[in-house]
Amino acid sequence: MKSFLNSVGISLILTILFLYPILSTMGTHLTSREDGIFIAWTINHVSHSLQTGADLFQVPTFYPFKNTLAYSDPFLTSGLMNIPLTWVTDNIVLMHNVHLLLGTILTFISMWLLGRQLFTSRWAAAFSALIFTFSSMHLHYLVHLHTYLVAGLPLTLYFLLRWAESKKSVFLFLSTIVFILQAINAPMTFFFMVSLIICLLIADKTLRQMIRRNWLLVAMYGVLTLLTIGLVYWPYFQVSQEFKYTRSIRDAAHFAHSLNRMIEPELWLLYGAVSGILFFRGNTPLEKKHLLIFPLLAVATGAVLMLGPALKVNDQTFKIFGWPMPLPYAVLYYVIPGFKAFRATSRWITVFNFGLSLWVGWAVAEYQLPTISKYRHQALALIFLGLTTFFWFGNYHTIKVYPIPLEPPTIYQVLKNRPERVAAEFPVLSWRMQPYNYLENDRLLYQAYHQKVLYNGVSGFTPPIREERWEWLWREFPSPETIDHLKNEGVEVMIVHYDVYEEMSDQKYTYAEVPTLQPTAIRDSLRQLKVEEIECLQDKCLYSLL
Protein backbone atom coordinates (compact mmCIF):
# COMPACT_ATOMS: atom_id res chain seq x y z
CA MET A 1 0.00 0.00 0.00
CA LYS A 2 2.85 2.40 0.80
CA SER A 3 4.38 1.76 -2.62
CA PHE A 4 1.03 2.39 -4.29
CA LEU A 5 0.57 5.67 -2.41
CA ASN A 6 4.08 6.66 -3.43
CA SER A 7 3.14 6.10 -7.07
CA VAL A 8 0.05 8.26 -6.65
CA GLY A 9 2.06 11.06 -5.07
CA ILE A 10 4.80 10.96 -7.70
CA SER A 11 2.26 10.86 -10.54
CA LEU A 12 0.51 13.93 -9.16
CA ILE A 13 3.77 15.88 -8.87
CA LEU A 14 4.91 14.91 -12.36
CA THR A 15 1.52 15.64 -13.90
CA ILE A 16 1.53 19.15 -12.42
CA LEU A 17 5.13 19.65 -13.54
CA PHE A 18 4.64 18.52 -17.13
CA LEU A 19 1.07 19.61 -17.80
CA TYR A 20 0.94 22.93 -15.98
CA PRO A 21 -0.05 24.83 -19.17
CA ILE A 22 -3.19 22.71 -19.25
CA LEU A 23 -3.81 22.97 -15.50
CA SER A 24 -3.61 26.75 -15.61
CA THR A 25 -6.29 27.03 -18.32
CA MET A 26 -8.51 24.06 -17.49
CA GLY A 27 -11.85 25.53 -18.48
CA THR A 28 -10.89 27.75 -21.39
CA HIS A 29 -8.11 26.16 -23.48
CA LEU A 30 -7.45 22.87 -25.26
CA THR A 31 -4.33 21.28 -26.71
CA SER A 32 -5.86 21.51 -30.17
CA ARG A 33 -8.34 23.94 -31.69
CA GLU A 34 -9.58 21.23 -34.05
CA ASP A 35 -9.22 17.66 -32.74
CA GLY A 36 -9.48 18.82 -29.13
CA ILE A 37 -12.95 20.29 -29.66
CA PHE A 38 -14.13 17.28 -31.66
CA ILE A 39 -12.95 14.81 -29.00
CA ALA A 40 -14.39 16.86 -26.12
CA TRP A 41 -17.73 17.11 -27.95
CA THR A 42 -17.77 13.37 -28.78
CA ILE A 43 -17.08 12.36 -25.17
CA ASN A 44 -19.86 14.69 -24.04
CA HIS A 45 -22.25 13.11 -26.57
CA VAL A 46 -21.39 9.60 -25.35
CA SER A 47 -21.90 10.63 -21.71
CA HIS A 48 -25.34 12.08 -22.39
CA SER A 49 -26.39 9.14 -24.58
CA LEU A 50 -25.44 6.67 -21.86
CA GLN A 51 -27.49 8.64 -19.34
CA THR A 52 -30.56 9.36 -21.47
CA GLY A 53 -30.77 6.15 -23.47
CA ALA A 54 -30.52 8.04 -26.77
CA ASP A 55 -29.11 6.23 -29.79
CA LEU A 56 -25.42 6.10 -28.91
CA PHE A 57 -24.14 5.73 -32.45
CA GLN A 58 -26.40 8.42 -33.90
CA VAL A 59 -24.20 11.46 -33.41
CA PRO A 60 -26.13 14.66 -34.31
CA THR A 61 -23.94 15.49 -37.32
CA PHE A 62 -23.77 14.41 -40.98
CA TYR A 63 -27.57 14.22 -41.11
CA PRO A 64 -29.26 12.07 -42.42
CA PHE A 65 -26.50 9.41 -42.37
CA LYS A 66 -26.69 6.64 -39.76
CA ASN A 67 -24.11 5.27 -37.29
CA THR A 68 -22.15 8.51 -37.41
CA LEU A 69 -20.29 7.80 -34.17
CA ALA A 70 -18.55 5.06 -36.15
CA TYR A 71 -16.85 7.71 -38.28
CA SER A 72 -14.24 8.02 -35.53
CA ASP A 73 -13.19 6.36 -32.26
CA PRO A 74 -16.16 5.61 -29.96
CA PHE A 75 -14.70 6.93 -26.66
CA LEU A 76 -17.18 4.75 -24.75
CA THR A 77 -15.02 4.35 -21.65
CA SER A 78 -14.16 8.04 -21.68
CA GLY A 79 -17.84 8.88 -21.93
CA LEU A 80 -18.66 6.52 -19.07
CA MET A 81 -15.97 8.04 -16.83
CA ASN A 82 -17.15 11.50 -17.87
CA ILE A 83 -20.69 11.04 -16.54
CA PRO A 84 -20.00 12.34 -13.00
CA LEU A 85 -18.49 15.50 -14.50
CA THR A 86 -21.69 16.19 -16.46
CA TRP A 87 -23.52 16.41 -13.13
CA VAL A 88 -21.49 19.40 -12.01
CA THR A 89 -20.61 21.28 -15.23
CA ASP A 90 -21.63 21.68 -18.85
CA ASN A 91 -18.20 23.01 -19.86
CA ILE A 92 -16.94 20.35 -22.28
CA VAL A 93 -13.49 21.95 -22.37
CA LEU A 94 -13.13 21.53 -18.61
CA MET A 95 -14.39 17.94 -18.80
CA HIS A 96 -11.90 17.12 -21.56
CA ASN A 97 -8.97 18.49 -19.57
CA VAL A 98 -10.00 16.74 -16.35
CA HIS A 99 -10.17 13.53 -18.34
CA LEU A 100 -6.73 14.18 -19.82
CA LEU A 101 -5.13 14.80 -16.41
CA LEU A 102 -6.78 11.78 -14.78
CA GLY A 103 -5.70 9.66 -17.74
CA THR A 104 -2.11 10.80 -17.26
CA ILE A 105 -2.17 9.88 -13.57
CA LEU A 106 -3.81 6.50 -14.24
CA THR A 107 -1.26 5.68 -16.94
CA PHE A 108 1.63 6.36 -14.57
CA ILE A 109 0.08 4.35 -11.73
CA SER A 110 -0.82 1.43 -14.00
CA MET A 111 2.70 1.22 -15.41
CA TRP A 112 4.10 1.50 -11.88
CA LEU A 113 1.97 -1.49 -10.81
CA LEU A 114 3.13 -3.56 -13.77
CA GLY A 115 6.76 -2.65 -13.12
CA ARG A 116 6.45 -3.67 -9.47
CA GLN A 117 4.83 -6.94 -10.49
CA LEU A 118 7.55 -7.75 -13.01
CA PHE A 119 10.64 -6.51 -11.20
CA THR A 120 9.59 -6.06 -7.52
CA SER A 121 11.91 -3.03 -7.44
CA ARG A 122 10.23 0.31 -6.71
CA TRP A 123 12.95 2.12 -8.66
CA ALA A 124 12.38 -0.09 -11.69
CA ALA A 125 8.64 0.60 -11.50
CA ALA A 126 9.25 4.35 -11.19
CA PHE A 127 11.56 4.49 -14.22
CA SER A 128 9.17 2.42 -16.35
CA ALA A 129 6.22 4.61 -15.39
CA LEU A 130 8.16 7.85 -15.97
CA ILE A 131 9.26 6.88 -19.48
CA PHE A 132 5.96 5.40 -20.59
CA THR A 133 3.94 8.39 -19.36
CA PHE A 134 6.17 11.43 -19.83
CA SER A 135 8.45 10.71 -22.77
CA SER A 136 7.65 12.47 -26.04
CA MET A 137 6.49 9.13 -27.44
CA HIS A 138 3.43 9.48 -25.19
CA LEU A 139 3.05 13.24 -24.69
CA HIS A 140 3.00 13.70 -28.45
CA TYR A 141 -0.56 12.35 -28.35
CA LEU A 142 -1.95 14.90 -25.91
CA VAL A 143 -3.99 16.22 -28.83
CA HIS A 144 -5.35 12.71 -29.58
CA LEU A 145 -6.93 11.30 -26.43
CA HIS A 146 -7.83 8.04 -28.18
CA THR A 147 -4.09 7.28 -28.39
CA TYR A 148 -3.06 9.11 -25.21
CA LEU A 149 -5.42 7.26 -22.84
CA VAL A 150 -3.64 3.91 -22.60
CA ALA A 151 -3.69 3.08 -18.88
CA GLY A 152 -5.50 -0.13 -19.81
CA LEU A 153 -2.42 -1.55 -21.52
CA PRO A 154 -0.22 -2.03 -18.43
CA LEU A 155 -3.21 -2.62 -16.14
CA THR A 156 -4.52 -5.51 -18.24
CA LEU A 157 -1.11 -7.21 -18.10
CA TYR A 158 -0.72 -6.45 -14.39
CA PHE A 159 -3.94 -8.27 -13.52
CA LEU A 160 -3.04 -11.11 -15.87
CA LEU A 161 0.30 -11.61 -14.10
CA ARG A 162 -1.37 -11.37 -10.70
CA TRP A 163 -3.75 -14.11 -11.79
CA ALA A 164 -0.89 -16.36 -12.89
CA GLU A 165 0.94 -15.72 -9.62
CA SER A 166 -1.94 -15.95 -7.13
CA LYS A 167 -4.21 -18.36 -9.05
CA LYS A 168 -7.18 -16.21 -7.99
CA SER A 169 -9.74 -15.98 -10.78
CA VAL A 170 -10.80 -12.49 -9.69
CA PHE A 171 -7.61 -11.14 -11.29
CA LEU A 172 -8.45 -12.78 -14.62
CA PHE A 173 -11.87 -11.19 -14.39
CA LEU A 174 -10.34 -7.77 -13.70
CA SER A 175 -7.90 -8.21 -16.57
CA THR A 176 -10.82 -8.98 -18.88
CA ILE A 177 -12.82 -5.95 -17.73
CA VAL A 178 -9.86 -3.59 -18.17
CA PHE A 179 -9.10 -5.08 -21.59
CA ILE A 180 -12.69 -4.46 -22.71
CA LEU A 181 -12.79 -0.93 -21.31
CA GLN A 182 -9.59 -0.03 -23.12
CA ALA A 183 -10.67 -1.66 -26.39
CA ILE A 184 -14.09 0.01 -26.57
CA ASN A 185 -12.53 3.42 -26.08
CA ALA A 186 -10.28 3.27 -29.15
CA PRO A 187 -10.07 0.31 -31.53
CA MET A 188 -6.35 0.61 -32.29
CA THR A 189 -5.53 -0.02 -28.63
CA PHE A 190 -7.23 -3.42 -28.98
CA PHE A 191 -4.45 -4.44 -31.37
CA PHE A 192 -1.84 -2.90 -29.05
CA MET A 193 -3.08 -5.07 -26.18
CA VAL A 194 -3.33 -8.24 -28.24
CA SER A 195 0.26 -7.80 -29.46
CA LEU A 196 1.50 -7.21 -25.90
CA ILE A 197 -0.36 -10.23 -24.54
CA ILE A 198 1.20 -12.40 -27.27
CA CYS A 199 4.66 -11.08 -26.35
CA LEU A 200 3.98 -11.84 -22.67
CA LEU A 201 2.76 -15.37 -23.45
CA ILE A 202 5.91 -16.08 -25.43
CA ALA A 203 8.02 -14.90 -22.49
CA ASP A 204 6.14 -16.29 -19.50
CA LYS A 205 5.95 -20.07 -19.18
CA THR A 206 3.98 -19.81 -15.91
CA LEU A 207 1.25 -17.81 -17.60
CA ARG A 208 1.03 -20.31 -20.46
CA GLN A 209 0.69 -23.19 -18.00
CA MET A 210 -1.98 -21.30 -16.05
CA ILE A 211 -3.99 -20.78 -19.21
CA ARG A 212 -3.74 -24.46 -20.16
CA ARG A 213 -4.95 -25.52 -16.70
CA ASN A 214 -7.84 -23.07 -16.79
CA TRP A 215 -8.64 -23.16 -20.50
CA LEU A 216 -12.41 -23.31 -19.98
CA LEU A 217 -12.47 -20.17 -17.81
CA VAL A 218 -10.12 -18.39 -20.20
CA ALA A 219 -12.27 -19.41 -23.15
CA MET A 220 -15.40 -18.12 -21.41
CA TYR A 221 -13.83 -14.73 -20.73
CA GLY A 222 -12.41 -14.66 -24.23
CA VAL A 223 -15.84 -15.20 -25.78
CA LEU A 224 -17.31 -12.53 -23.48
CA THR A 225 -14.59 -10.11 -24.58
CA LEU A 226 -15.02 -10.78 -28.30
CA LEU A 227 -18.82 -10.55 -28.11
CA THR A 228 -18.70 -7.23 -26.24
CA ILE A 229 -16.10 -5.69 -28.52
CA GLY A 230 -17.82 -7.11 -31.60
CA LEU A 231 -21.14 -5.59 -30.53
CA VAL A 232 -19.51 -2.18 -30.09
CA TYR A 233 -17.68 -2.26 -33.40
CA TRP A 234 -20.39 -3.86 -35.53
CA PRO A 235 -21.62 -0.38 -36.65
CA TYR A 236 -18.07 0.31 -37.88
CA PHE A 237 -18.29 -2.75 -40.12
CA GLN A 238 -21.69 -1.57 -41.35
CA VAL A 239 -20.30 1.87 -42.23
CA SER A 240 -17.36 0.28 -44.06
CA GLN A 241 -19.75 -1.88 -46.06
CA GLU A 242 -22.17 0.98 -46.71
CA PHE A 243 -19.53 3.13 -48.34
CA LYS A 244 -17.24 0.31 -49.54
CA TYR A 245 -14.47 2.18 -47.77
CA THR A 246 -11.18 1.22 -46.12
CA ARG A 247 -7.99 3.15 -45.51
CA SER A 248 -5.60 2.58 -48.41
CA ILE A 249 -2.18 1.07 -47.84
CA ARG A 250 -0.78 4.32 -49.25
CA ASP A 251 -2.33 6.13 -46.26
CA ALA A 252 -0.69 3.61 -43.94
CA ALA A 253 2.66 4.27 -45.61
CA HIS A 254 2.23 8.05 -45.59
CA PHE A 255 1.45 8.20 -41.86
CA ALA A 256 4.22 5.80 -40.81
CA HIS A 257 7.41 6.82 -39.02
CA SER A 258 10.70 7.09 -40.84
CA LEU A 259 13.63 4.98 -39.67
CA ASN A 260 15.14 8.22 -38.34
CA ARG A 261 12.64 8.13 -35.45
CA MET A 262 14.64 5.26 -33.97
CA ILE A 263 17.75 7.39 -33.51
CA GLU A 264 16.39 10.66 -32.12
CA PRO A 265 18.15 12.17 -29.04
CA GLU A 266 15.52 11.03 -26.55
CA LEU A 267 15.89 7.42 -27.64
CA TRP A 268 19.68 7.57 -27.64
CA LEU A 269 19.46 8.75 -24.04
CA LEU A 270 17.31 5.76 -23.11
CA TYR A 271 19.52 3.33 -25.00
CA GLY A 272 22.50 4.88 -23.19
CA ALA A 273 20.74 4.66 -19.82
CA VAL A 274 20.19 0.93 -20.28
CA SER A 275 23.78 0.38 -21.36
CA GLY A 276 25.25 2.50 -18.58
CA ILE A 277 23.14 0.96 -15.83
CA LEU A 278 23.93 -2.57 -16.98
CA PHE A 279 27.64 -1.73 -17.17
CA PHE A 280 27.65 -0.99 -13.44
CA ARG A 281 25.30 -3.77 -12.40
CA GLY A 282 26.37 -6.46 -10.00
CA ASN A 283 26.02 -10.19 -10.32
CA THR A 284 22.83 -10.56 -8.28
CA PRO A 285 20.36 -12.47 -10.45
CA LEU A 286 17.07 -10.73 -11.16
CA GLU A 287 13.94 -12.50 -10.01
CA LYS A 288 11.82 -13.48 -13.06
CA LYS A 289 14.82 -12.77 -15.29
CA HIS A 290 13.28 -14.83 -18.08
CA LEU A 291 10.74 -12.02 -18.55
CA LEU A 292 13.44 -9.83 -20.10
CA ILE A 293 12.32 -11.24 -23.43
CA PHE A 294 8.88 -9.65 -22.96
CA PRO A 295 9.96 -5.98 -23.18
CA LEU A 296 12.38 -6.83 -25.99
CA LEU A 297 9.59 -8.47 -27.99
CA ALA A 298 7.37 -5.43 -27.35
CA VAL A 299 10.15 -3.10 -28.51
CA ALA A 300 10.65 -5.13 -31.67
CA THR A 301 6.92 -5.34 -32.40
CA GLY A 302 6.35 -1.61 -31.94
CA ALA A 303 9.50 -0.68 -33.86
CA VAL A 304 8.61 -2.78 -36.90
CA LEU A 305 4.91 -1.83 -37.08
CA MET A 306 5.36 1.90 -36.51
CA LEU A 307 7.48 1.98 -39.69
CA GLY A 308 4.40 1.00 -41.70
CA PRO A 309 4.20 -1.12 -44.85
CA ALA A 310 7.39 0.16 -46.49
CA LEU A 311 10.68 1.47 -45.15
CA LYS A 312 11.10 5.25 -45.14
CA VAL A 313 14.22 7.32 -44.47
CA ASN A 314 13.97 11.09 -44.03
CA ASP A 315 10.22 10.77 -44.77
CA GLN A 316 10.99 9.36 -48.22
CA THR A 317 10.28 5.79 -49.28
CA PHE A 318 13.54 3.84 -49.35
CA LYS A 319 13.88 2.02 -52.67
CA ILE A 320 16.24 -0.62 -54.05
CA PHE A 321 16.45 -0.68 -57.83
CA GLY A 322 13.31 1.44 -57.91
CA TRP A 323 11.29 -0.88 -55.65
CA PRO A 324 10.20 0.01 -52.10
CA MET A 325 11.43 -2.23 -49.30
CA PRO A 326 8.32 -3.96 -47.88
CA LEU A 327 7.88 -4.45 -44.14
CA PRO A 328 5.67 -6.88 -42.15
CA TYR A 329 2.87 -4.31 -41.87
CA ALA A 330 2.28 -4.72 -45.62
CA VAL A 331 1.27 -8.35 -45.00
CA LEU A 332 -0.70 -7.67 -41.81
CA TYR A 333 -2.68 -4.96 -43.61
CA TYR A 334 -4.22 -7.61 -45.86
CA VAL A 335 -4.33 -10.53 -43.42
CA ILE A 336 -5.56 -9.20 -40.06
CA PRO A 337 -9.23 -8.07 -39.93
CA GLY A 338 -9.47 -4.43 -38.90
CA PHE A 339 -6.02 -3.30 -40.00
CA LYS A 340 -7.48 -1.63 -43.08
CA ALA A 341 -9.36 0.77 -40.78
CA PHE A 342 -6.20 2.55 -39.64
CA ARG A 343 -3.96 5.01 -41.40
CA ALA A 344 -1.77 6.34 -38.54
CA THR A 345 0.59 3.36 -38.33
CA SER A 346 3.02 5.67 -36.51
CA ARG A 347 0.89 5.17 -33.38
CA TRP A 348 2.47 1.75 -32.92
CA ILE A 349 5.22 3.76 -31.25
CA THR A 350 3.04 3.34 -28.16
CA VAL A 351 3.93 -0.37 -28.09
CA PHE A 352 7.57 0.48 -28.76
CA ASN A 353 7.47 2.96 -25.85
CA PHE A 354 5.82 0.33 -23.65
CA GLY A 355 8.57 -2.19 -24.30
CA LEU A 356 11.39 0.34 -24.00
CA SER A 357 10.00 1.58 -20.66
CA LEU A 358 10.05 -1.94 -19.25
CA TRP A 359 13.47 -2.59 -20.74
CA VAL A 360 14.86 0.38 -18.82
CA GLY A 361 12.97 -0.87 -15.75
CA TRP A 362 14.62 -4.26 -16.12
CA ALA A 363 18.06 -2.62 -16.31
CA VAL A 364 17.32 -0.57 -13.17
CA ALA A 365 16.21 -3.69 -11.33
CA GLU A 366 19.52 -5.30 -12.26
CA TYR A 367 21.53 -2.32 -11.09
CA GLN A 368 23.90 -2.72 -8.17
CA LEU A 369 27.24 -1.06 -7.42
CA PRO A 370 29.33 -3.66 -5.58
CA THR A 371 31.91 -1.20 -4.25
CA ILE A 372 29.63 1.68 -3.35
CA SER A 373 26.30 -0.10 -2.89
CA LYS A 374 25.28 2.21 -0.05
CA TYR A 375 24.98 5.02 -2.60
CA ARG A 376 22.85 2.98 -4.99
CA HIS A 377 19.57 4.71 -4.09
CA GLN A 378 21.16 8.14 -4.30
CA ALA A 379 22.60 7.32 -7.71
CA LEU A 380 19.22 6.08 -8.98
CA ALA A 381 17.51 9.17 -7.57
CA LEU A 382 19.93 11.40 -9.48
CA ILE A 383 19.37 9.43 -12.69
CA PHE A 384 15.60 9.62 -12.21
CA LEU A 385 15.79 13.37 -11.60
CA GLY A 386 18.06 13.84 -14.61
CA LEU A 387 15.74 11.85 -16.87
CA THR A 388 12.73 13.82 -15.61
CA THR A 389 14.56 17.09 -16.31
CA PHE A 390 15.51 15.92 -19.79
CA PHE A 391 11.91 14.96 -20.58
CA TRP A 392 10.61 18.24 -19.18
CA PHE A 393 12.96 20.43 -21.21
CA GLY A 394 12.28 18.33 -24.29
CA ASN A 395 8.50 18.43 -24.04
CA TYR A 396 7.32 21.41 -22.01
CA HIS A 397 7.70 23.92 -24.85
CA THR A 398 5.81 21.61 -27.22
CA ILE A 399 2.69 21.52 -25.01
CA LYS A 400 0.62 24.34 -26.43
CA VAL A 401 -2.90 25.31 -25.48
CA TYR A 402 -5.38 27.28 -27.55
CA PRO A 403 -8.29 29.47 -26.40
CA ILE A 404 -11.68 27.98 -27.21
CA PRO A 405 -14.63 30.27 -28.09
CA LEU A 406 -17.10 28.90 -25.57
CA GLU A 407 -19.62 31.75 -25.77
CA PRO A 408 -22.04 31.02 -28.64
CA PRO A 409 -22.82 33.84 -31.06
CA THR A 410 -26.26 35.36 -30.51
CA ILE A 411 -27.76 33.70 -33.58
CA TYR A 412 -27.49 30.33 -31.84
CA GLN A 413 -29.74 31.57 -29.07
CA VAL A 414 -32.39 32.21 -31.70
CA LEU A 415 -31.78 28.76 -33.21
CA LYS A 416 -32.05 27.09 -29.81
CA ASN A 417 -35.54 28.49 -29.30
CA ARG A 418 -36.81 27.42 -32.71
CA PRO A 419 -39.00 24.29 -33.06
CA GLU A 420 -37.12 22.97 -36.10
CA ARG A 421 -34.85 19.96 -35.56
CA VAL A 422 -32.31 19.84 -38.43
CA ALA A 423 -29.97 22.72 -39.31
CA ALA A 424 -27.25 23.43 -41.86
CA GLU A 425 -24.55 26.10 -41.64
CA PHE A 426 -22.89 27.91 -44.52
CA PRO A 427 -20.29 27.92 -45.74
CA VAL A 428 -20.06 24.16 -45.27
CA LEU A 429 -16.37 23.56 -44.63
CA SER A 430 -14.78 20.19 -45.31
CA TRP A 431 -11.51 19.09 -43.71
CA ARG A 432 -9.74 19.97 -46.95
CA MET A 433 -10.68 23.65 -46.70
CA GLN A 434 -7.76 24.83 -44.63
CA PRO A 435 -7.27 27.16 -42.82
CA TYR A 436 -11.03 27.65 -42.34
CA ASN A 437 -11.94 24.03 -41.60
CA TYR A 438 -11.53 24.67 -37.84
CA LEU A 439 -14.80 26.60 -37.90
CA GLU A 440 -16.74 23.34 -38.25
CA ASN A 441 -15.22 22.25 -34.93
CA ASP A 442 -16.41 25.50 -33.34
CA ARG A 443 -19.89 24.68 -34.60
CA LEU A 444 -19.77 21.46 -32.61
CA LEU A 445 -19.31 23.54 -29.47
CA TYR A 446 -22.43 25.48 -30.28
CA GLN A 447 -24.36 22.34 -31.21
CA ALA A 448 -23.94 21.24 -27.60
CA TYR A 449 -25.71 24.51 -26.73
CA HIS A 450 -28.59 24.59 -29.24
CA GLN A 451 -29.02 20.78 -29.50
CA LYS A 452 -30.12 20.74 -33.14
CA VAL A 453 -29.07 17.98 -35.53
CA LEU A 454 -26.52 19.22 -38.08
CA TYR A 455 -26.22 18.57 -41.78
CA ASN A 456 -22.58 19.64 -41.32
CA GLY A 457 -20.06 17.43 -39.58
CA VAL A 458 -16.51 16.79 -38.44
CA SER A 459 -14.96 13.39 -37.81
CA GLY A 460 -12.11 11.09 -38.72
CA PHE A 461 -14.11 9.97 -41.74
CA THR A 462 -16.48 11.79 -44.05
CA PRO A 463 -18.68 9.81 -46.47
CA PRO A 464 -17.23 10.32 -49.96
CA ILE A 465 -20.65 11.21 -51.33
CA ARG A 466 -21.01 13.91 -48.69
CA GLU A 467 -17.59 15.35 -49.54
CA GLU A 468 -18.69 15.56 -53.17
CA ARG A 469 -21.91 17.27 -52.14
CA TRP A 470 -20.05 19.80 -50.01
CA GLU A 471 -17.76 20.67 -52.89
CA TRP A 472 -20.83 21.03 -55.10
CA LEU A 473 -22.45 23.31 -52.50
CA TRP A 474 -19.32 25.46 -52.45
CA ARG A 475 -19.60 25.91 -56.22
CA GLU A 476 -23.37 26.30 -56.54
CA PHE A 477 -24.85 27.66 -53.30
CA PRO A 478 -27.23 29.42 -53.30
CA SER A 479 -29.24 28.11 -56.24
CA PRO A 480 -32.63 26.42 -56.65
CA GLU A 481 -30.87 23.04 -56.91
CA THR A 482 -28.90 23.51 -53.67
CA ILE A 483 -31.99 24.62 -51.75
CA ASP A 484 -33.94 21.61 -53.09
CA HIS A 485 -31.06 19.33 -52.09
CA LEU A 486 -31.08 20.66 -48.51
CA LYS A 487 -34.85 20.21 -48.27
CA ASN A 488 -34.61 16.67 -49.63
CA GLU A 489 -31.96 15.87 -47.03
CA GLY A 490 -34.37 16.98 -44.30
CA VAL A 491 -32.75 20.33 -43.47
CA GLU A 492 -35.33 22.69 -41.95
CA VAL A 493 -33.28 25.79 -41.09
CA MET A 494 -29.90 27.13 -42.10
CA ILE A 495 -27.48 29.70 -40.80
CA VAL A 496 -25.49 31.71 -43.32
CA HIS A 497 -22.32 33.17 -41.79
CA TYR A 498 -21.87 36.26 -43.91
CA ASP A 499 -18.96 37.38 -41.73
CA VAL A 500 -17.08 34.17 -42.67
CA TYR A 501 -17.83 34.69 -46.36
CA GLU A 502 -16.62 38.29 -46.00
CA GLU A 503 -13.32 37.21 -44.44
CA MET A 504 -12.75 34.46 -47.01
CA SER A 505 -13.54 36.88 -49.81
CA ASP A 506 -11.15 39.49 -48.42
CA GLN A 507 -8.43 36.84 -48.32
CA LYS A 508 -9.28 35.86 -51.91
CA TYR A 509 -9.80 32.30 -50.73
CA THR A 510 -10.30 29.72 -53.48
CA TYR A 511 -11.31 26.09 -53.13
CA ALA A 512 -11.64 23.58 -55.97
CA GLU A 513 -10.66 26.44 -58.28
CA VAL A 514 -13.80 28.33 -57.23
CA PRO A 515 -13.37 31.73 -55.51
CA THR A 516 -15.41 32.74 -52.50
CA LEU A 517 -18.77 34.22 -53.40
CA GLN A 518 -19.41 37.77 -52.22
CA PRO A 519 -21.83 38.02 -49.25
CA THR A 520 -24.02 40.52 -51.07
CA ALA A 521 -24.44 38.12 -53.98
CA ILE A 522 -25.53 35.36 -51.56
CA ARG A 523 -28.08 37.66 -49.87
CA ASP A 524 -29.52 38.74 -53.21
CA SER A 525 -29.77 35.16 -54.46
CA LEU A 526 -31.60 34.02 -51.32
CA ARG A 527 -34.04 36.91 -51.66
CA GLN A 528 -34.70 35.99 -55.29
CA LEU A 529 -35.30 32.39 -54.24
CA LYS A 530 -37.74 33.68 -51.62
CA VAL A 531 -36.02 31.81 -48.79
CA GLU A 532 -37.62 33.05 -45.58
CA GLU A 533 -35.29 35.06 -43.38
CA ILE A 534 -36.02 34.47 -39.69
CA GLU A 535 -33.49 36.81 -38.10
CA CYS A 536 -30.06 38.35 -38.71
CA LEU A 537 -27.59 39.10 -35.91
CA GLN A 538 -23.89 40.02 -36.12
CA ASP A 539 -23.67 39.27 -39.86
CA LYS A 540 -25.16 35.82 -39.33
CA CYS A 541 -28.63 35.10 -40.67
CA LEU A 542 -31.06 32.31 -39.86
CA TYR A 543 -33.33 31.10 -42.69
CA SER A 544 -36.27 28.73 -42.80
CA LEU A 545 -36.43 26.03 -45.47
CA LEU A 546 -39.91 24.79 -44.58
Features:
546 residues, alpha+beta, 5-stranded mixed sheet, two-stranded antiparallel ribbon, 13 strands
Number of strands: 13
Largest sheet: 5 strands, mixed
Shape designation: elongated
- The proportion of strand residues reads 5-15%
Q: Span from first to last CA?
A: 65 Å
Which structural class do you get from the secondary structure elements? Answer: alpha+beta
Radius of gyration: 26 Å
List segments where confidence is low: pLDDT < 50 over at least 5 consecutive residues: none
Helical amount: 55-70%
User: For the residues shown, what is the average pLDDT?
Assistant: 91
Major sheet: order of its strands? 8-7-9-13-12
What is the number of helical segments per DSSP (H or I, 4+ residues)?
Answer: 25
Give a quick rundown of the structure.
60% of the residues lie in helices and 7% in strands.
